[in-house]
Amino acid sequence: MNRSEIKGSKKNTRNKVCAKIIAYIFWIGIIGYTLINATDSPRYDLVFTKNELLLNAIGLTIGMSIGILVFSMVFGFGLYIATESKNYIIKYIFTGFKEIAMGTPLIVMIFLVVYVFAPIINVTDKNLLGCLSIILYMSAYVSNSYKSVIDMIDQNQYVVMNLYDFNLYQRYRYVILPQIMRPYSEFQ
C-alpha cells in the first residue's frame, strides 16, 4: 500500500466511525423523545415496583423469540425440501403456501391464524397462536434464504460428493447443512 491508499483508508475508517456516532445519537434522540412525549403521565416507577412482572415478561419474550427462531428454521427447511420435491402435488401445494405467506402482511396472517384456524383446531392460547402465526409467516422467508444458500454451493462440491458417492442424507449432513447454518452462526 502506498501513502495515499493508507490515508484514504484512515479517512474512510474515520468517516465510518463518525457516521456510526451520528446514527447512535439520532436513535438515542428518537427513543428519548418518545419516552418523554409518549404519555401525559408516564409511570416509570412501575419498573422498580413491578419488577417481577417485568422480568417474567422479558423471560417470556426471549423464550418465545428463541422458539419462533428455531421452529421457523426447521419449518422453513421442511418447506424448502417440499418446494424442491419431485412430487408435483407436494411441490405445488407448498409453493402455493410460500407465495401466499410471502404476499400476506403479518397482521393478516395473525388474524387468519387466531380467528379462522384456531377455532378449527380448537386452540385458545393466544401466545401459542401468535407464535404459530409468526412461525408460518417467517418460514417462507427462511425457506428462500435456504434456497439462495444452496444455490450458491459451488458445482465442484457436487462433483466431490458424486466422487465419494454420497447419498442424499450424507450430502445434506456433511456438505449442504453446514453451509446453510454458517450465515446463521456468524455474528457480524
> Helical region count?
8
Distance between the termini: 26 Å
The CATH class label of the domain at 65-152 is: Mainly Alpha
Which structural class is indicated by helix and strand composition?
mainly alpha
Helix and strand topology:
Layout: H1 3-37, H2 46-49, H3 51-83, H4 88-103, H5 106-121, H6 126-151, H7 155-163, H8 168-185
Helix pairs in contact: 3-6, 4-6, 5-6
Task: Kindly describe this structure.
Among the domains are: 1-38; 65-152, Orthogonal Bundle (MetI-like fold). The protein has 188 residues and is mainly α. It is extended. The chain is 84% helix and 0% strand. Helix 5 packs across helix 6 (126-151). It is built from eight helices and no strands.
Question: Which properties best describe this structure?
Answer:
188 residues, mainly alpha, MetI-like fold, 84% helix, extended
Provide a brief overview of the structure.
It contains 8 helices and no strands. It has helices at residues 3-37, 46-49, 51-83, 88-103, 106-121, 126-151, 155-163, 168-185.
